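Re: beginner question about structure tokens

> Can someone show what the tokenized structure looks like for a real chain? I only ever see the sequence side.

Sure, here's an example I had lying around. Input first:
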Amino acid sequence: MKRLCQILATVLLAAAATGCRKSPPPAPVTIDRYREVEEFTFTNQENAPVSRADLLGKVWVANFIFTSCSAECLVLSQRMGALQTRYAADPGVAFVSFSVDPHTDQPPRLNQYAKTWQADPGRWSFLTGPVEALDGLVKHSFLLPVARGPEEQAELIRSNFVHSNKFAIVDRQGTVRAYVDGLKTGAVEQTAGVIDRLLTEPADAPAAMAAPDRG
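And the corresponding structure tokens:
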């Protein structure tokens, strides 16, 4: 735990130093209708099934991590934790972290990782499952990249992954409505702005789709 906190502090300090440099403000988040999330059932950190149906009726934020990541995933998880705290009193908001290393990230390991971030299992799910199903969901429902590189003998399995650092915000009908770069300064505020907007929409909002800016 101490080591994890040290790593996270280093990453956040580096991000803060970068943020101190003059840079343009983040572009406004585009809220549209990108893709309906396909049916899925994966296993969470408590070894319980979680499906798309369990999330219908809620606004939820998805991100993509793996527990052996020692850099970006720590920032993403810290910011998801900040969002969980922000919406602690609103049961209509949920959070889902999909593992892109499901071979390693089995429920006991995910449970340990979730506890590091004080994740409420009723609100924030860390999901694992078959590689093909997870990859398919990321690519086809969230329209985000995930790639597996060649094996490297001297590297841990985490070196074989490339995945998006974006948060995908999903509405109560199960449609992806917006993307926020989870590593950028202001990501928590931007994501919260989208959540607040989606919470005001009627439950029977239309479902026309658009093509997103992938990345």
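Each token stands for a local structural state, so reading them left to right follows the chain. The two ends are 31 Å apart (CA to CA).
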